[in-house]
Specification:
Layout lengths: L1 H39 L10 H11 L1 H20 L6 E7 L18 E10 L2 H69 L5 H36 L23 H6 L2 H22 L5 E9 L7 E7 L10 H67 L5 H33 L6 H17 L1
Antiparallel strand pairs: 1-2, 2-3, 3-4
Helix pairs in contact: 2-4, 3-4, 4-5, 4-7, 4-9, 5-9, 7-8, 7-10, 8-9
Keywords: Cell outer membrane, Coiled coil, Membrane, Transmembrane, Transmembrane beta strand, Transport
Pfam families: OEP
Main location: membrane
């Protein structure tokens, strides 16, 4: 027993001494760990998040924009390369080496054996090389317009996510406000029952209404979480920041009088115009390919010292003996591709015009409906609720009438909010319909006019 006590005393002394020595280190490690954890937490902006700020953040975070920039850079590099002549070819060979007889595998005894050093160069015409470079230059322009299309799509999706979160917040706030009013009815019905003037069934009816609103609140909160998650896809953790009031959705840059011109500035159309430009450049390459490239070669052949060295000059010329079934077919295929792209562009223009006209009609109709809801329907629903509540408080009405009126008011307010959400979504589609880059808009429109003139 004494031995165990002695060992315990030694162990205790050792632990205390270890703690005394290592205590500063342990505290330092814990402090660093807490500091690291604090730094790892996302730092949300202190200011509410506006729509324009969200769009700016989305553009800064986008990898799709960087991808289009890389595509433009790749085509630009290829355009420089296409203007150059092909690389020369160095030839090293051992010719006419005997493989049998007394001179087998000897490189110096047979007079025909030669060690040859040669170089050859294919000369591609300048017009052909420029035509090839033009293809990549057009692809550079296509990538730049595709970048504008990516930005437009990015802004549209980010704006839709921003508005969705904003209105889902409004929905939750609306339902919570109505729930507070419904809870007052529960308190009133309980007080009325205790005073002997009310019925117990009124209490259950009021509580049922509160529970129903709570269920709708849970649904709205789930939708709010989903909307926030969607917004984080575009702007990261900043999506959890509170939002400012949205911009005015009653004004749009699109009007029916100039709809066709504005549709021509649509990034989708601009991309198709650029693709048509690439196809025309490729058709020109196909025409230039009908001009053959000549390949010149120079060879120096060394023989044994007893024989003289030799020089050879040669030229290789492809024989396009069947152009109508080969080269001409390629040209015809490229021209057909141009016609295909032109027809697809015309169909897309018609589609966008019809779609945008539908958006404008629905948007204008919704603005009128929102005005009716704000000026007529919601005030009437609210007045009905107040009237039935006054009758019930005066002992001349039923609680069920009050609750029915309140439900109608809730439905009316929710429908008004739903119409506003739909209107905001249409406004986003109209607001980000055309490209925001004026230089690319002008270039795309100019190309389109040129193509229509040459058609």
């Amino acid at each position: 027993m004494s031995t165990l006590l002695a060992r315990a005393s030694v162990l205790q002394t050792y632990v205390l001494e270890f703690w005394r020595i290592k205590k500063p280190l342990i505290f330092a490690l814990l402090t660093a760990s807490f500091a690291t954890g604090a730094l790892a937490q996302p730092q949300l902006p202190s200011q509410p998040l506006s729509l324009e700020t969200a769009l700016h953040i989305a553009e800064q975070r986008s990898q799709a924009i960087l991808a289009q920039e890389a595509s433009a850079l790749a085509s630009q590099e290829m355009a420089v390369r296409a203007k150059e002549l092909p690389d020369p070819i160095l030839q090293l060979s051992l010719n006419n080496l005997p493989v049998n007889g007394s001179m087998a595998y000897s490189i110096s005894e047979d007079f025909m054996t030669m060690r040859t050093l040669g170089i050859s160069q294919t000369f591609t015409g300048e017009n052909k090389r420029q035509a090839r470079a033009n293809v990549f230059e057009r692809k550079v322009h296509t990538a730049q317009i595709a970048k504008e299309l990516t930005i437009s799509q990015l802004r549209r999706e980010t704006a839709l996510a921003w508005f969705d979160r904003f209105y889902q917040q409004q929905m939750v706030a609306l339902l919570e406000e109505q729930q507070k009013e419904a809870k007052l009815q529960v308190n009133a019905s309980e007080a009325s029952y205790r005073s002997g003037q009310g019925r117990q069934s009124d209490i259950f009816l009021a509580k049922t209404t509160v529970a129903e609103i709570q269920d709708r609140i849970l649904q709205a909160q789930a939708s709010l979480k989903n909307a926030t998650t969607t917004l984080t896809r575009w702007i990261g953790d900043t999506a959890y920041t509170s939002l400012v009031q949205p911009p005015d959705i009653t004004q749009s840059p699109i009007d029916k009088l100039h709809l066709t011109h504005q549709i021509n500035e649509h990034p989708d159309i601009a991309v198709m115009v650029a693709q048509e430009s690439v196809a025309r450049a490729e058709a020109e390459v196909a025409r230039q390919e009908k001009r053959v490239d000549w390949t010149w070669s120079l060879m120096y052949s060394e023989r044994s010292s007893a024989f003289s060295d030799m020089v050879s000059i040669g030229v290789n010329v492809p024989l396009q003996w069947n152009q109508e079934n080969r080269q001409d077919r390629v040209v015809a295929a490229e021209l057909a591709k141009i016609e295909q792209l032109r027809s697809e562009r015309e169909e897309m223009i018609r589609q966008h015009i019809a779609e945008t006209q539908r958006w404008l009609d629905t948007w204008n109709s919704n603005l009128i409906r929102l005005s009716d809801y704000q000026e007529t329907l919601i005030p009437l629903a609210s007045q009905r609720t107040q009237a039935t509540l006054a009758q019930y408080s005066g002992g001349n009405g039923e609680l069920s009438e009050v609750l029915d009126a309140r439900k109608i008011e809730i439905v009316t307010r929710i429908e008004r909010l739903r119409i506003e959400m739909e209107t905001a979504a249409i406004w986003v589609a109209l607001e980000y319909l055309a490209s925001h880059n004026a230089a690319i808009e002008y270039d795309a429109t100019t190309q389109q006019s040129h193509f229509l003139e040459t058609k």
